[in-house]
Amino acid sequence: MKTDNQTSEFSSGMDELRCLLERQIELARQGKIDEVGVLSGQASSLVEKLAGQGLFELADPVLNTGQRERIAELYRDLCLILTNQKQNAGEQLNRLRKGKKAIGAYRNNTRS
User: Fold this and answer.
1) Cα gap 25→38, rounded to integer Å
2) Does domain 4-111 correspond to CATH entry 2.40.50?
3) Is 64 a residue whose pLDDT tops 80?
4) What pLDDT score does 13 carry?
5) pLDDT tens, position by position, 31-41
6) End-to-end CA separation in angstroms for the chain
7) Residues 6+ away with beta carbon under 8 Å from 14
8) CB burial class (10 A; 0-12, 13-18, 19+) of residue 76?
9) CA 37, 42, 44: angle at the middle one, nearest 5?
10) Does residue 1 surpass a pLDDT of 50?
């Protein structure tokens, strides 16, 4: 049987998780991936804490559906942003490699 304190603790934890995800999204959009990683560790620790205390099982799914849906939405957004940034970084690396090859070829041609 859950207590009001446990329900409050779960709700507070979910709010904190939501805030962490919102901040991660903000940082990811700014390209601050290292800081996103730090917050990701904090979010993981929070989820482990809530799960370890059994609060996910105790939480009333009807009362917390909105919170859960919002967190799932934020997590999907974060994944999309990070995937996009990873793709952009890969494209930039490919351009750099091609440029490096072109410079190498130019250098070799000027020495001949």
Assistant:
1) 13
2) no
3) no
4) 86
5) 999 999 999 99
6) 83
7) 50, 64, 67, 68, 71
8) exposed
9) 90
10) no
Show the tokens assigned to 79: 């994944």
- Burial (CB count within 10 angstroms: exposed 0-12, middle 13-18, buried 19+), residue 104: exposed
* Residues 38-57: tens digit of each pLDDT: 999 999 999 898 888 776 66
Structure tokens at 86: 């990873």
Q: Residue 73 has what pLDDT? A: 95
3 secondary structure, DSSP code: -
Locus of tokens 């990701």: 40
What whole-number distance in Å separates Cα of residue 56 and Cα of residue 83? Answer: 28
Structure tokens at 82: 């990070």
Instruction: Round to whole Å and give the CA distance between 8 and 59.
Output: 10
Q: Which amino acid is at 106?
A: Y
